[in-house]
Task: structure prediction
Amino acid sequence: MEYRVLETRSADILTKYYNNEIDSFLNACHEDILWIGPAEKHVIRTRKALVDAFSQEEHKLEFVLSDLKVFSIGLTERSCEVIMFFILDTIWPDSSVGRADQRMQFTWVSENGVEKIKLCHISNAIKYDERDRIYPVHYEEIYKKNVCSGERRTKRVIVNGVDRSLVFLDRSWIAYVESSGSHCVI
Result:
């Protein structure tokens, strides 16, 4: 297995996954895949069950992926882990945005020279007190302030940046807007 090739392939599949182009992910899945999503009860076993679940999914959500970091760990000659860390912004139809510090793990296996994803595990990092190293000794103090990981869902104004980026501004942050030709000053 070429781990660097699988890192690149995984990043491509992840990018398409959050661009609502799910087929490249489903086509890369092993027949006996285990998919663990970030929400409770998000556990699906077998490619057929996963295809069925995604085919029933209807949504008008948009996603913006940023700060992607990809690592691979070789396990055997025919298997490896690819771990991806990234920021995921979910944009709801009402233009509100939620942010998650997300991780995705693909366990790749090679059978007869064909690499397939045997495990896909998606999780969201939770806020953690800086005083804690491993165990959440101070978790209750943080949990009272942060029920969910990431930013709370708020109404946002979405504008194009000068570098072709998308900029998400909380409406309460905006004090002034002025038109300037084909641009604006906020």
About this structure: Helices lie at 3-17, 23-28, 47-56, 139-143.
